[in-house]
């Protein structure tokens, strides 16, 4: 007994099947695209470098701590002697280019003197001024005059030189630091076989200066005081984070 013949699908039936298949592909593609869109992005590749910029120049400001130490049997007597010596010292400084606004008391101390048995034998007064001047050509003469006015009681506790217009120097140092950071980043990126992108952040780190400093000194006699200002430097560091291509 022969099997009944199966007629091939008609044209409309084939079109409906094809349409269904296309719709399934569209739905699947949409689901894949939605999954990719919702996937969190991978970590951005970055490079962090530190650049340093240093500028040097001749200082135009001098600060000196100069004081007077006096001793007497009583505290009041020691203080009276000290006041008189400090008046002479200030007058000498003012006569050689310093101003009242450039003089500031930085230390005043009165303490008893004792012997080996702990007995008070007298009192000592220390009075110190911080004197700041921009007249560096007069600085040596000013210190010499102070020593002659006070004598052996004068004490020089420290001299330092600095730059007064630091904003201008800082701007130059920052530009140099950024250039230094970019040069280092380009070298690292090239060595690693990648390209350097734009900076993502720039952090201005601590700046530092290196003024010329002299150690504490006492004047044993009035003598000419040579002042050599030398050079001072100011450094700035910046931390830059670059994107990598």
Order of helices and strands: HEEHEEHEHEEEE
Mean pLDDT: 80
Q: Are there runs of 5+ residues with pLDDT below 50, and where?
A: 212-223
CATH class call of the domain at 61-162: Alpha Beta
> Which CATH architecture of the domain at 61-162 would you pick?
2-Layer Sandwich
Distance between the termini: 76 Å
The beta-strand count equals: 9
Instruction: Tell me the radius of gyration.
Output: 40 Å
Estimate the strand proportion: 35-45%
Reported by name, the CATH topology of the domain at 61-162 is Alpha-Beta Plaits
Report helical residue fraction.
25-40%
Count of helical stretches = 4
Shape: elongated
What structural class is derived from the secondary structure elements? alpha+beta
Characterize the largest beta sheet: strand count, sense, and whether it forms a barrel.
6 strands, antiparallel
Which homologous superfamily in CATH is the superfamily of the domain at 61-162?
Protein of unknown function (DUF541), domain 2
Concise structural overview:
By secondary structure, the protein is of the alpha+beta class. The chain contains four helices and nine strands; from the N terminus they run αββαββαβαββββ.
Task: Give a structural overview.
By secondary structure, this protein is α+β, with helices and mostly antiparallel strands. It has a domain of 102 residues: Alpha-Beta Plaits. It contains 4 helices and 9 strands; from the N terminus they run H-E-E-H-E-E-H-E-H-E-E-E-E. Strands 2, 3, 4, 5, 7 and 8 form a 6-stranded antiparallel β-sheet that branches. Strands 1-9-6 form a 3-stranded antiparallel β-sheet. A hairpin with a 5-residue loop joins strand 3 and strand 4. The longest helix is centred in the N-terminal third of the chain and has 28 residues. The chain is elongated. It starts with 10 loop residues before the first helix and ends with a strand.
